[in-house]
């Protein structure tokens, strides 16, 4: 598939072969962009600002609605591409496309709602009788750098709102899974002026600096690992940036929790796309009085999950994105066992596949829970008392989302207040997310399900 620069397809001198993580088969080839390709894309986006400025908010909104419709029409093909490039089980790929349709529609809605404020000025000295007002104007050129794990949704998640606000864009998807993002960029570019949507495929380490250093790029929106986020943040200096980085989300299970629901949520949250999700449940913090029951039930369901070909609708767990990623997860599991964790099930690796794994008696300090483990691993950390649970939950540097299972409203409210996460979900796991909610380090507290007993 070609890149898009200034409304035209571009194939580079060097190419990269995209392989299916399930069987290593070639899926497609994409160009390996060089410095001059990226510079051309940036200049095209810079020039296209005028053409975007000619579009009314209503026109932009209509175009984004049309893009949403096309995504919906092409749901099957997008899902197939996502599964082939990323190894994501097809059921989940279909969910990703549906959510991308939703994201495009939300962007279309917001395009018509970019209001400013009117501010009475008489609170300031000399302001009597005066009224100020603000208007929103586009920033200019927005560069979007996206990871492999939600290759379509995270692309529309960035490019949709940027266009909605009248900006032009350069999308740089992950080389591991660039195809669905490129296909999306093609659809977008057919609706918007030439140069308003550009997409370049290349190694982040090679083309990233060209984007970060360019004075013509007004904003970088990045989703990916903490390491790369740190690098971009340090290098971008005064440029506007938005960073959505790694997670290590806890699921706290209190002694009064509905254990069956908690286990079901743990399974859902831990093994979704083999755990390669920023808001996957990565730590299960379970009260010691219910930990044996929780662990038994978790092992039972974990053992019944079906691993295999991600194209098969019955597959629950597919491969990791590549063998290096699988080797790393296997290493971290091994290190936890060496340090005293008990392996209840799983733990082995075959090629890119890591068996869904339950580890019990994990304690703070073990690498498997100190850093983000991007694989199908369920570490159980036992605690005794709410203070200890909160201390453990807050004991890492990550803070995306958290889930708490309890039937006690006081406990739920305390956890919601004291757990350092953007969102605390009560009786729901951290993978739950809707796009019109604030996300990330936003301090939002959501009640997804009412707790069933009152204190
Ligand atoms: P990654 O950081 O390796 O790569 C992300 C993107 O950055 C890719 O497009 C890559 O090519 C590019 N990149 C790499 N080096 C770069 C550089 N020096 N300059 C500029 N760009 C560079 O991440 P990944 O492995 O693709 O994705 C997994 C990570 O993403 C996990 O940590 C996960 O938690 C995180 N993630 C976060 C969210 C969120 O919303 N917070 C969502 C999804 C994934």
From TrEMBL:
PROSITE patterns: ALDEHYDE_DEHYDR_CYS, ALDEHYDE_DEHYDR_GLU. Its EC number is 1.2.1.22. It catalyses: (S)-lactaldehyde + NAD(+) + H2O = (S)-lactate + NADH + 2 H(+). Keywords: Oxidoreductase. It comes from the Archaea. InterPro entries: Ald_DH/histidinol_DH, Ald_DH_C, Ald_DH_CS_CYS, Ald_DH_CS_GLU, Ald_DH_N, Aldehyde_DH_dom, ALDH-related_metabolic_enz. It holds the Pfam family Aldedh. Signal peptide: none annotated. Residues 13-440 form the Aldehyde dehydrogenase domain. GO terms for molecular function: lactaldehyde dehydrogenase (NAD+) activity. Homotetramer. This is Lactaldehyde dehydrogenase. It comes from Methanothermobacter thermautotrophicus (strain ATCC 29096 / DSM 1053 / JCM 10044 / NBRC 100330 / Delta H). The lineage of its organism: Archaea, Methanobacteriati, Methanobacteriota, Methanomada group, Methanobacteria.
């Amino acid at each position: 598939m070609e890149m898009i620069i200034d409304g035209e397809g571009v194939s580079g001198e060097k190419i990269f072969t995209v392989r299916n993580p399930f069987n290593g088969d070639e899926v497609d080839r994409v160009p390996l962009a060089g410095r001059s390709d990226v510079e051309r894309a940036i200049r095209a986006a810079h020039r296209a600002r005028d053409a975007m400025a000619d579009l009314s908010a209503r026109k932009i909104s209509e175009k984004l609605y049309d893009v949403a419709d096309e995504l919906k029409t092409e749901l099957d093909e997008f899902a197939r591409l996502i599964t082939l490039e990323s190894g994501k089980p097809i059921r989940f790929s279909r969910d990703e496309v549906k959510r991308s349709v939703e994201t495009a529609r939300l962007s279309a809605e917001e395009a018509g709602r970019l209001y400013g404020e009117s501010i009475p000025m008489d609170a300031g000295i000399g302001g009597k009788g005066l009224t100020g007002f603000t208007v929103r104007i586009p920033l200019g050129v927005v560069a979007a750098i996206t990871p492999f794990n939600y290759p379509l949704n995270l692309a529309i998640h960035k490019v949709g709102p940027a266009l909605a606000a009248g900006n032009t864009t350069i999308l740089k998807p992950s080389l591991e899974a660039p195809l669905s993002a490129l296909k999306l960029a093609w659809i977008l570019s057919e609706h918007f002026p030439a140069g308003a949507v550009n997409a370049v495929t290349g190694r982040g380490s090679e083309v990233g600096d060209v984007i970060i250093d360019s004075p013509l790029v007004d904003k970088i929106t990045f989703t990916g690992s903490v390491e790369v986020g740190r690098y971009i943040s340090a290098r971008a200096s005064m440029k506007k940036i938005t960073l959505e980085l790694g997670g290590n989300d806890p699921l706290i299970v209190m002694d009064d929790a509905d254990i069956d629901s908690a286990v079901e949520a743990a399974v859902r949250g831990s093994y979704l796309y083999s755990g390669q999700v920023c808001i996957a449940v990565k730590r299960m913090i379970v009260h010691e009085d219910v930990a044996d029951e929780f662990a038994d039930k978790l092992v039972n369901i974990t053992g019944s999950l079906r691993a295999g070909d991600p194209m098969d609708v019955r597959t629950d767990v597919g491969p990791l994105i590549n063998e290096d990623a699988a080797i790393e997860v296997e290493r971290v599991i091994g290190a936890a066992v060496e340090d005293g964790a008990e392996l209840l099930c799983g733990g082995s690796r075959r090629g890119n596949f890591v068996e869904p794994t339950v580890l019990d008696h994990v304690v703070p300090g073990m690498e498997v829970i100190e850093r983000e483990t991007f694989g199908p691993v369920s570490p159980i950390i036992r605690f005794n008392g709410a203070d200890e649970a909160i201390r453990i939950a807050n004991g890492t540097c990550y803070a995306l989302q958290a889930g708490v299972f309890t039937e006690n409203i006081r406990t739920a409210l305390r956890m919601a207040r004291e757990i350092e996460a953007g969102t605390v979900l009560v009786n729901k796991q951290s993978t739950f997310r809707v796009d019109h909610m604030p996300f990330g380090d936003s301090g939002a507290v959501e009640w997804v399900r009412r707790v069933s007993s009152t204190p």
